[in-house]
Design a protein that fits this description.
Length: 198
Amino acid sequence: MREILGWRCSLFTDRIFGRGVIPILLLVLCFSSHAADCSLYPIALSSQTLTGVQPGTVVNNIMNGKQPGNFGWLTWAGSPSVPTLAASLTPPGNSDTYVNPDNPNDRVLSVGDWVQGKPGVSNSKNVRDALDALKAVDIVVPVWDQTLGQGNNADYRVAAFARMRLIGYNLPGQSRITARFLGYASCGQENQAPLVQA
């Protein structure tokens, strides 16, 4: 989606203004739209898993929750239900439903925020169908560095966001999701563009 938005902005400005002559306001709006598109998917990826990993590397398991009863699923608004997980995994995702467990007024998942873990492996057909669909697109997942609690009360602190391309999964046998690491992404409130007056 990021690539599509960037292409549309380039095509739009080229058609109207010609190459090399782009008003600053329009340029800011295009890059703002390009950067703000950050649909997140509820898979908990440990920062330790990415230590020393270069973009393009296949990571054997990105589903790595730590707390007891958690296998790596997240829940944006606290619901532990499998249908909620399946909906969050189905493109384009619904990370816009996020609610900070420490501050209900915070609805934008940013670095430093906490997100709740979803207990159980959750291997329903809807979940598998959603994972199969995700193999065709690049996704962004939260990278965590700290945890608190356990079970349905487990929380993960977001340290970064990573772009991944799912390759395969093995649920519930190994509780494993394999993906290619594509690099880090900028998401959340730090992504908001400055206001520019024409």
